[in-house]
Amino acid sequence: MQSKGWDDPNYDQGDDHPVACISWNDSQDFIMWLAEKTGKSYRFVTEAEWEYVARAGSSTRYHFGNDEKDLCDYANVPDLTAKAEMAKNEGWSPWLYVDCNDGYGIQSAPVGSYKPNAFNVYDMHGNVWEWVEDCYIDNFNGAPKDGSARMSERDCDYVVRGGSLSAPVAASRSAMRFAGVTELRGAAAEKAPKEWHNFNLGLRVAMTLD
Length: 210
Known about the structure:
The chain is an alpha+beta fold. The protein has one domain: Alpha-Beta Complex (paralog of FGE (formylglycine-generating enzyme)). Helices cover 16% and strands 11% of the residues. The strands form two sheets. A four-stranded mixed beta sheet has the order 4-3-2-5, covered by helices on one side. A two-stranded antiparallel ribbon has the order 1-6. The relative contact order is 0.23.
């Protein structure tokens, strides 16, 4: 998939779809361009901010509750539609599927296709993984308490959150966090962490308010 990019993630997209197949470096460049173009202080979401918004006041596995069968009302995840398409196209797939239908198969869904969470924010679960600003560290010891990003003095794997159209549904849980390439860690060895892109990698942008 490294031959693909945001303008061709290997499936059809429209202007109302989330950007996909975008690396951390690409995301950073876009945010800088957007801030310069608009004169507003756009930036990456920090990991703490992401989870606060994703949970929307909940303490359950997903912002809507604990039953993964309800995911198709709220998220684009590997469902029975995707299972049928993968069986037709490849004959076998290691994906793990949820027992419901969201209708989008093995491609992203337009933003706002599903129900929002209690903060009226869409697609916090599924669709595309979302890069955040933080470096991945496997525990929260010494993590900032003010919601700021946890960074490293050296290059690092950056955190992705939220699950995706191809990730096991458990990966869409509000608490789940992964480093960089997630499902394709072995394939990433030849690429710098900031340069890796895949059909299910996107971002969510924040804007600092005065």
